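ok, trying the design again with the full structure, not the truncated one.
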């Protein structure tokens, strides 16, 4: 990585990142906005089950805490996921990150760990990334670390149980169903304890927060303050997709979201280039190749540096036609 491409402060937010982590951040399209144009990610849809019920989730689709709304990804077995990674990496070596982000919650699915183990064994240089609702984070953190995950997203939509109780209908925790404030208290405790433990273990943590007007919009800055204390690296404030029990809530305008991002920025770096990817997306963030025609994918196969330049030109020129709309 040339020096000018690595803009990351190695002591960001009170945390010192070693050289290896700095390299991973600089090559991660979600964590470093400059990297989004150069490096891609592949999502492996190996995690169908979820252990909570968010009020904006209709469950037929991918987890909307991280993914593109209204989209269902085909679930893969760990072995299928490995094969898919092999095929895609052979053609698109600019993909540096393998993420598991659904379609349900990765920590609620054993296939997540099995998949990471397989990928790590065959591709030890790739960054392994995961996105979770955090309910099982404290108890699964060691498994996650053992599997080699170094960048982690936790969705944190409230740190006040009264507010969280309006967002999540129920959780299923250790075989028991909890609702309301009781459920919220369990989840928030686990999310915050899990984030702290992950940061302490050297994981680079991102927090996703779904901005829900009238529910958590005034509260998001308190989340930002809290995650600053915990050493979170970056925050991604996502607009509500109004479906499910929240179908009647008007999503935030771009201006409202921007104002909240600006209010949170003094506390934690803001991610503004999220594309709300599918749980099976691959390629550059702005150009999800899972949605491209075979013909087009062939056109941008990468074998040499020149191919890479050509691919970028092609994608810049007319890729918008085939990429997903936001
Ligand atoms: Fe995937 Fe998420 Fe890892 Fe990125 S996505 S698991 S951190 S590799 Fe990125 Fe996609 Fe936004 Fe997610 S643009 S939806 S933030
Ligand atoms: Fe749906 Fe994701 Fe919430 Fe689970 S965590 S209920 S998949 S939005």
């Amino acid at each position: 990585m040339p020096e000018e491409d690595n803009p990351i402060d190695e002591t960001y937010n009170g945390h010192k990142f070693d050289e290896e982590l700095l390299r991973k951040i600089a090559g991660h399209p979600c964590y470093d906005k400059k990297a989004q144009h150069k490096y891609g990610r592949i999502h492996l849809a190996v995690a169908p089950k979820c252990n909570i019920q968010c009020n904006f989730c209709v469950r037929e689709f991918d987890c909307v805490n991280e993914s593109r709304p209204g989209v269902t990804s085909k679930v893969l077995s760990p072995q299928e996921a490995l094969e898919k990674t092999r095929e895609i990496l052979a053609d698109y070596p600019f993909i540096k990150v393998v993420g598991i982000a659904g379609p349900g919650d990765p920590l609620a699915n054993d296939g997540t760990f099995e998949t990471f183990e397989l990928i790590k064994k065959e591709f030890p240089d790739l960054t392994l990334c995961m996105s979770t609702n955090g309910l099982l984070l404290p108890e699964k953190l060691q498994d996650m670390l053992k599997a080699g995950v170094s960048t982690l997203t936790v969705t944190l939509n409230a740190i006040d149980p009264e507010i969280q109780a309006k967002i999540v209908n129920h959780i299923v925790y250790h075989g028991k169903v909890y609702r309301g404030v009781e459920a919220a208290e369990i989840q928030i405790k686990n999310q915050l304890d899990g984030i702290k433990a992950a940061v302490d273990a050297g994981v680079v943590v991102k927090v996703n927060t779904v901005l829900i007007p009238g529910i958590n919009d005034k509260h998001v800055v308190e989340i930002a303050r809290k995650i600053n204390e915990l050493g979170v690296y970056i925050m991604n404030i996502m607009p509500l997709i109004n479906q499910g029990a929240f179908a009647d809530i008007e999503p935030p305008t771009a201006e409202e979201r921007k104002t909240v991002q600006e209010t949170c920025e003094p506390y934690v770096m803001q991610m503004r280039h999220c594309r709300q990817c599918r749980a099976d997306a691959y390629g550059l963030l702005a150009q999800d190749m899972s949605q491209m025609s075979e013909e087009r994918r062939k056109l941008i196969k990468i074998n040499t540096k020149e191919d890479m330049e050509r691919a970028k030109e092609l994608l810049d020129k007319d890729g918008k036609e085939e990429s997903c709309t936001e």
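Keeping the full-length input from now on. The chain has ten helices and twelve strands.
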